[in-house]
């Protein structure tokens, strides 16, 4: 039984029922329907901290999903898991792939910025101020893109950009 059919709370059950109805009404291929189920199961596993299971479901969904927009969210969530696991290079690759398919995904730009900022902080700790500036400038670029897409979000990033003189305002 798919994970999405084992949900115990009312909201998850309701979402699953609505999603199932929409999949029946909207003309989609069998592969797209299966991809949607794997994606939902991946999100469910991810929300419960079952990252290995979530990744398996996301990888299956990616093999079936052909729509670039839908694939962008699968790739983004895969990046989230790799970020949580401290695999920043892998996470950055998934966020980049998500942005290639959906350049209007501010949260992916934000997460790329957070990774770059983290790497900048690491460079400072290692006594490499030149490398830290490169990473911080890259973080500023990504945050600028995220803020352009979602101006009322990322207030801390906006403050950091102003404080460090990297704001383009």
TrEMBL record:
<keyword id="KW-0793">Thylakoid</keyword>
<dbReference type="GO" id="GO:0015979">
    <property type="term" value="P:photosynthesis"/>
</dbReference>
<comment type="function">
    <text>Seems to be required for the assembly of the photosystem I complex.</text>
</comment>
<comment type="similarity">
    <text>Belongs to the Ycf3 family.</text>
</comment>
<keyword id="KW-0934">Plastid</keyword>
<dbReference type="GO" id="GO:0042651">
    <property type="term" value="C:thylakoid membrane"/>
</dbReference>
<feature type="repeat" description="TPR 3">
    <location>
        <begin position="120"/>
        <end position="153"/>
    </location>
</feature>
<keyword id="KW-0802">TPR repeat</keyword>
<keyword id="KW-0602">Photosynthesis</keyword>
<dbReference type="InterPro" id="IPR019734">
    <property type="entry name" value="TPR_rpt"/>
</dbReference>
<feature type="repeat" description="TPR">
    <location>
        <begin position="35"/>
        <end position="68"/>
    </location>
</feature>
<dbReference type="GO" id="GO:0009536">
    <property type="term" value="C:plastid"/>
</dbReference>
<feature type="repeat" description="TPR">
    <location>
        <begin position="72"/>
        <end position="105"/>
    </location>
</feature>
<dbReference type="Pfam" id="PF00515">
    <property type="entry name" value="TPR_1"/>
</dbReference>
<dbReference type="InterPro" id="IPR011990">
    <property type="entry name" value="TPR-like_helical_dom_sf"/>
</dbReference>
<keyword id="KW-0150">Chloroplast</keyword>
<feature type="repeat" description="TPR 1">
    <location>
        <begin position="35"/>
        <end position="68"/>
    </location>
</feature>
<keyword id="KW-0677">Repeat</keyword>
<protein>
    <recommendedName>
        <fullName>Photosystem I assembly protein Ycf3</fullName>
    </recommendedName>
</protein>
<feature type="repeat" description="TPR 2">
    <location>
        <begin position="72"/>
        <end position="105"/>
    </location>
</feature>
<keyword id="KW-0472">Membrane</keyword>
<dbReference type="InterPro" id="IPR022818">
    <property type="entry name" value="PSI_Ycf3_assembly"/>
</dbReference>
């Amino acid at each position: 039984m798919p994970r999405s059919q084992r949900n115990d709370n009312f909201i998850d059950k309701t979402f699953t029922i609505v999603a199932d109805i929409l999949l029946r009404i909207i003309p989609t291929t069998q592969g797209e329907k299966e991809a949607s189920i794997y994606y939902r199961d991946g999100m469910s596993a991810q929300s419960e901290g079952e990252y290995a299971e979530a990744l398996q479901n996301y990888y299956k969904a990616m093999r079936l999903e052909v729509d670039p927009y839908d694939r962008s969210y699968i790739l983004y969530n895969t990046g989230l898991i790799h970020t949580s696991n401290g695999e920043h290079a892998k996470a950055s690759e998934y966020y980049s792939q998500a942005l290639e398919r959906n350049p209007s995904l501010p949260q992916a730009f934000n997460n790329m910025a957070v990774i770059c900022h983290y790497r900048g902080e690491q460079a400072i700790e290692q006594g490499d101020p030149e490398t830290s500036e490169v990473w911080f400038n890259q973080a500023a670029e990504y945050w600028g893109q995220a803020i352009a897409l979602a101006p009322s979000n990322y207030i801390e990033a906006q403050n950091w950009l102003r404080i460090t003189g990297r704001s383009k305002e």
